[in-house]
Amino acid sequence: MTDLLEQARALLPCALAAGARELAYFREGTEVIDKADGSPVTRADREAEEIISKALADLFPHIPMVGEESVAAGVIPDISGGTFWLVDPLDGTKEFITGSGDFTVNIALMEDFTPVMGVIYAPVADTLYFGAAGKAFIRGQDGVEKRISVRAAPPEGLTVVASKRHGDPAALEDFLKGKKVAEVISRSSSLKFCSLAAGEADFYPRLGPTCEWDTAAGEAVLRAAGGRVATLEDKPFLYGKITQKFLNPGFMAFGAG
């Protein structure tokens, strides 16, 4: 399959299956384990990544996958060619553990170390976001697929989306000085990118660290909807940083303008 949107649609059943596994654990509860870096992981994270890994291997056997849980286990494939999958099977694990619905399944295709296609599934809301090649879509519980795009910033000011659990409110307030801000809303996981892509918000500054699998699918969907992502210095956002353990610097995600 050469068409990126065709590839994205081929992955929707995989994202749904991973999300269904997570939703079962979300409702029933599951053991929480601390990884070596101190971040939490559950059986839902690991089993969802297994579902995604198998589906990608079946559909696209020649493209390597970088997954959060496989990297944590020390498994990093050769991605020197620049084409690979970046997968966060359960983005927002802390929200998952505490009973919040703000967690997602994230799958991104990288070409030349750039996110060119993304699929995001929010299991609790039963909502899919996906995009590639300048087109982004949402599919809700009714199964209807709708085109989405970023919006022009409203004259009354920006709606800023910020991390619910991470970051420094004082630092964010300082960063936003000089910008006309109408509202600041808090969300978790890649849903912050989705809010921009769907024209529900305008600006997402992230002043703290993330990992590449946290951002790749969200950036791909946002780019397809007409937005962009840059470092805090407004320079290109880079991926494939193995020597930095796939850690991201702070960044800014923009809707239109």
List key phrases describing it.
257 residues, alpha+beta, Fructose-1,6-Bisphosphatase, Chain A, domain 1, D-Maltodextrin-Binding Protein, domain 2, 2 domains, seven-stranded mixed β-sheet, three-stranded antiparallel β-sheet, 7 helices, 30% strand, globular
Largest sheet: number of strands, sense, barrel closure? 7 strands, mixed
Helical/strand content category: alpha+beta
Distance between termini? 33 Å
The sequence of SSEs as H and E is: HEEHEHEHEEEEEEHEHEEHEEE
CATH class of the largest domain: Alpha Beta
β-sheet strand percentage: 25-35%
Strand line-up across the major sheet: 3-4-5-6-7-8-9
Task: Provide the low-confidence segments as ranges.
Answer: none
Which value, in Å, is the CA radius of gyration? 17 Å
- The number of helical runs is 7
The CATH topology of the largest domain turns out to be Fructose-1,6-Bisphosphatase, Chain A, domain 1
- Average per-residue pLDDT, rounded, comes to 93
From the spread of the alpha carbons, the general shape counts as globular
For the record, the CATH architecture of the largest domain stands as: 2-Layer Sandwich
Strands, count: 16
CATH superfamily of the largest domain: Fructose-1,6-Bisphosphatase, subunit A, domain 1
Helix proportion of residues, in percent? Answer: 25-40%
Can you tell me the number of structural domains? 2
Helices and strands, with pairings:
Blueprint: H1 4-28, E1 32-34, E2 40-42, H2 43-59, E3 65-67, H3 68-72, E4 84-91, H4 93-98, E5 104-111, E6 114-122, E7 127-132, E8 135-139, E9 145-148, E10 158-163, H5 169-175, E11 181-187, H6 191-197, E12 203-206, E13 210-211, H7 212-224, E14 228-231, E15 247-248, E16 251-254
Parallel strand pairs: 3-4, 10-11
Antiparallel strand pairs: 1-2, 4-5, 5-6, 6-7, 7-8, 8-9, 12-16, 13-15, 14-16
Helix pairs in contact: 1-2, 6-7
